[in-house]
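Marked as duplicate of an earlier ticket. Keeping the data here for the record.
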Amino acid sequence: MNYIVNGHQYVISHATLTLILLLAIWELIWKGFALWRAGKNSNLGWFIVILILNTAGILEILYLFVFSKPNDKK
């Protein structure tokens, strides 16, 4: 696909667009789980950092499995 932005032409392949879309979906899934747990555990600092930074799911996975503990409230 050819895109023209501010007079410059860019060529992006379908494989690249597919990779970007898959990465965005991956990030959205992990971000959702991490934000849910941070909110549930009242971790405002983590909530803000996870909300702002886009790290391809790396920070979110670390938060879920290393830095947070499941909330045992019933």
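See parent ticket for discussion. The longest helix spans residues 14-40.
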